[in-house]
Amino acid sequence: MQSYSEKIKEIAIRLLKDETVEVVFGFREGTLPMASPPFAAKTVEDAEQLTWTSHCCINLANYLMDHKGKVAIFAKGCDCRSIVNHIGEGKVKREDLHIIGVPCKGMVERHTICTLFDDEIDEAVEEDDGTILVRGNGREEKYQKADVMRQCCKVCVHRNPGIYDELAAELVTIPDDIKRYREVEEVEELGVDERWNFFENLVSTCIRCYACRDACPTCYCPTCFVDEAQPQWVGKGDEEPDIMTFHILRAFHTAGRCTDCGACVSSCPMGINMRAFTKKLEKDCLDLWDWESGLTSDVRPALETYQPGDPEDNFK
Amino acid sequence: MRILQIRKTDWAAGLEKSRKDHSLIGPVRERNNTSKFRELEVGEEPDFSITTTTMSPKSVVFPQSEVMFTYTTDKASPECNIMKVPKNDYSPRAIIGIRPFDAAAMNIVKKNFDTPDYRDPYWCDAYEACTFIGLAVTNPDSCDFSTSTNSGPFSTAGLDVLLVDTGDSFLAEVVTEKGASWMRSAGFDTKADHDAEETIATMRKEAEKKITSTVEFDNIDKKETLDLYNENFWESISFPCLNCGTCTYVCPTCWCFDIQDETAHKKGRRMKNWDSCMFPNFTIHTTGHNPRNTKLMRVRQRFMHKLKYHQSKYNQGIMCVGCGRCVTSCPVNIDIREVCKQMNS
Ligand code: SF4
Ligand code: SF4
Ligand code: SF4
Ligand code: SF4
């Protein structure tokens, strides 16, 4: 990723120097191995700190909505699709954006490597041959990036940016044997009770910190339904029906809009794969209405429109 | 100092024995490589291989959700409009394997719930039911900076017993009478060798040496509150923050809660739920006005409370024991050590 980083710095410095933009949204080195937090570069010195690693899991589109003025953003394939949605939903204006598309080779969560290594990690080095070398406590371990990358990245077919003003690297080739919905099919194949148990277990350790919602570019309601007090739609405690209500409703609110960027999963302190909900809805939108989120700003998302000819198989 | 020795071969049997007058709570692993403290089932041992549990043991005395009382507004009921406190179980319990930083955090949280003016019955009753059997940290995590706070890997602050793992056995430093009573109940009564105190002191030094992460906060105390409040750095510190409550939920010293009424038909209950200064809802008024309506203000509040206001109010250091949980759990790597450095410089 070294070559990406160099190019990213170069682009950011140029855009700030020639005043194309006031600020550049990207990532910088964090204080822990494999931490790459979002960063807003406003000066050339700031831009020197920008980097690109395999741990840029956060979706930067999430930061655009609070911003006024001209901004440049480094965007992976999924970030670009979220930007497309934001434009379509009137949250940002295309002319305020300078999008630098970053063809994506997949992201790896810190949590995954920490779990696999199961020891204190001093250093994680990414080699150009697609491996991650982890050192700590006198041990060394090598991981194939393809094996340890996020599930959403493994099944992603939109790795290349769909909307951009310039590219930070050459487009990547997408393997043509990706089984996009294998994980969903596995759950679909379960019986009703088993399926319920699956989802119950999935969220059993949820602490309702809402990091999943807050990291999600699609979740931008000024007051989320879980925070409403009058009326109070859902209890605020740690009981299972309330936790489940939060997850199921949130998933439906993102239906047809979720880009499977995985920022929700990557942000969860409890390592919960709440994508299991949203991925199913993504599959349904594709199956029923041939709809994929984030590819165009001109058509309303699947669940926002009704056409007389729409299939009704989903009405149960 | 009274030091006893527990052979590891006697450990499990002793734990079980102590159940006759204590329930046992300890660290356990959960799904997705996370961990927490919960009641141990019969025969289940606390998992001492975990140094820092994902969730802190604060929930043992301060559950994420707790019923304060229930009520009915049904006029036909003789109990109409009477608020009934649930009959909670406050029988003795031993928290086995709480780490010194988490025990130190209990002392901090106590300042909030047990004051000369007001005693929170829920927190205090649960706290008083606990005997804290600590476990010294011999292999500190890299984000542990507890030697900079009023704690440290072998600190006995807030503990009733401190266990030190010496390989085949534990040396148990008995700190309070409560601790002695649990040890008796478990049948642990073997006196340690005469050099035990020295062994602990040496191991303590070694563990302290392994902690290389530090913070300084003396200048923060000296600085004017408004100067810190108006610093420019809050903008860059707060930029990546998602305003999720993760940092405060995992923190052993964060004590904020919200009160909610949950009603169904004529029945209701009042709940005490964890809350977080990182949530916009935390400060919103009924008028709709929110005095802390930006991310910057909320992030600033968290660090000002922990590192400045707490020092000014209590003059007992910062509201942080250096467990490092917020550092490792924050999805965007906002690191209290870095913030502390900026505030202190
Ligand atoms: S981020 Fe994880 S723990 Fe937090 S609310 Fe979402 S699923 Fe629950
Ligand atoms: S629900 Fe998760 S995967 Fe979908 S857009 Fe939101 S953060 Fe991304
Ligand atoms: S500092 Fe980190 S953990 Fe805390 S609210 Fe912000 S993003 Fe969440
Ligand atoms: S502020 Fe962070 S390091 Fe300090 S006690 Fe809380 S979680 Fe631990």
Protein topology:
The complex is a heterodimer of chains A (316) and B (345).
Chain A: H1 2-17, E1 23-28, E2 38-41, H2 44-48, E3 50-51, E4 71-75, H3 77-88, E5 97-101, H4 110-117, E6 123-126, E7 131-136, E8 139-144, H5 145-148, H6 151-154, E9 166-167, H7 182-188, H8 192-202, H9 211-215, H10 240-254, H11 263-267, H12 275-289
Chain B: E1 2-7, H1 8-18, E2 23-30, E3 34-39, E4 65-72, E5 93-98, H2 100-113, H3 121-128, E6 130-135, E7 161-165, E8 169-174, H4 177-186, H5 196-210, H6 218-222, H7 225-229, H8 233-238, H9 246-250, E9 257-264, E10 267-274, H10 295-314, H11 325-329, H12 336-344
Parallel strand pairs in B: 2-5, 5-6, 6-7
Antiparallel strand pairs in B: 1-8, 2-3, 4-10, 7-8, 9-10
Describe the structure.
The complex is a heterodimer of chains A (316) and B (345). With 316 residues, chain A is α/β, with parallel strands linked by helices. Chain A has two domains: 2-109 and 149-304, no CATH class; 110-148, no CATH class. Chain A has helices spanning 2-17, 44-48, 77-88, 110-117, 145-148, 151-154, 182-188, 192-202, 211-215, 240-254, 263-267, 275-289; strands at 23-28, 38-41, 50-51, 71-75, 97-101, 123-126, 131-136, 139-144, 166-167. In chain A, the strands form two sheets. In chain A, strands 1, 2, 3, 4, 5 and 9 form a six-stranded mixed sheet that branches. Chain A has a three-stranded antiparallel sheet with strand order 6-7-8. Chain A starts with a helix and ends in a 27-residue tail after the last helix. The mean pLDDT of chain A is 94. In chain B, helix 1 (8-18) crosses helix 4 (177-186). Chain B starts with a strand and ends with a helix. The longest helix of chain B has 20 residues, at 295-314. Chain B has helices spanning 8-18, 100-113, 121-128, 177-186, 196-210, 218-222, 225-229, 233-238, 246-250, 295-314, 325-329, 336-344, and strands at 2-7, 23-30, 34-39, 65-72, 93-98, 130-135, 161-165, 169-174, 257-264, 267-274. Chain B folds into two domains: 2-210, no CATH class; 225-344, no CATH class. Chain B is of the alpha/beta class. In chain B, the strands form two sheets. Chain B has a seven-stranded mixed sheet with strand order 1-8-7-6-5-2-3, with helices on both faces. Chain B has a three-stranded antiparallel sheet with strand order 4-10-9, with no helix packed on it. The A-B interface holds A 30-32, 35-40, 58, 62-63, 66, 111, 114-115, 120, 122, 201, 204-205, 207-211, 213-215, 227, 232, 235-239, 266-272 and B 30-34, 54-55, 63-65, 139, 141-143, 236, 239-240, 242-246, 249-250, 258, 260, 262, 271, 273, 276, 279-281, 295, 327-329, 331-335, 337-338. One iron/sulfur cluster (SF4) binds at residues 59, 215-218, 254, 258-264, 275, 278 of chain A.
